[in-house]
Amino acid sequence: MTSVMSRKEKILVVEDEKDVRDLILLHLKREGFETTGVDNGEEALRLFKTCSFDLAILDWMLPGVSGLDLCKNLVGKLPVLMVTARADTTDIVLGLEMGADDYISKPFETPVLMARVRALLRRSQGKVEDSTKLLRCGELCLNLDTYQVTCDSKEVQLTISEFKLLAALMTHRGRVLSRDQLIELVQGQGVVVIDRAIDTHIFGLRKKLGPSADVIETIRGVGYRAKVWN
Asked: What is the pTM of this model?
């Protein structure tokens, strides 16, 4: 079924295996997306400097600049979906920590890939359901309009997934949210996500928030909560 959109979202696919790249591009076009495909990281970097994209789909093992290096360059700029044969837990965790918003292992099911793409685009373009545009917890400030996060007046660079997760916690501050609730708030109902991805994003968030890391509390056996700050 073709997505109903006010404009065509632009997606860049960086994949050095031609058959895989062509398959992904074919299904994205069928969904109504505007697509560009390249087979190396250097060309992708050039395109990012001159073109605007709504989503990047990256292979990890690319000639020259790797997908992981590309991912680090794109943190906070647009959502990134990694599609790679590297399927070990340590690889998945590293990919997410380096800035990927989601991670799919090869071989993949095409409907799952398309569902992940749609979910990432919803997350990056959607609004967190709260009338307050500026959320504060102590020295931590989050702006829902500009997608900016500051800690002690210094800007913190977050991935889109990390921002959405922090926004969900701060919007519901004081309330304990289970992992399932956070997945639903951040990614959207009915989309399969990587096991323990929430824990990985929380870990990454705390590292980036530095002195404000204790804003996020772990409620053992239940989930997470943002502190209520006076």
From this structure: 0.59
pLDDT digits (tens, 9 = 90+) for 6-60: 468 999 999 999 999 999 999 999 999 999 999 999 999 999 888 889 999 999 9
Residues recorded for the chain: 230
Q: Taking a C-beta distance cutoff of 8 angstroms, is the pair 14, 56 a contact?
A: yes
Q: Which residues contact 31 (CB under 8 A, 6 or more apart)?
A: 2, 3, 114, 117, 118
Token look-up 């590309």 returns: 70
Per-residue confidence at 229, pLDDT binned at 50, 70, 90? Answer: low
Report the 3 state secondary structure along 133-201: CEEEECCEEEECCCCEEEECCEECCCCHHHHHHHHHHHHCCCCCEEHHHHHHHHHCCCCCCCCCHHHHH
**Closest by CA position to 117, among listed 146, 60, 79:** 79
Domains recognised in the chain with CATH numbers: 10-125 (3.40.50.2300), 134-226 (1.10.10.10)
Amino acid at 174: G
Q: What are phi and psi of 183, to 5 degrees?
A: -60, -45
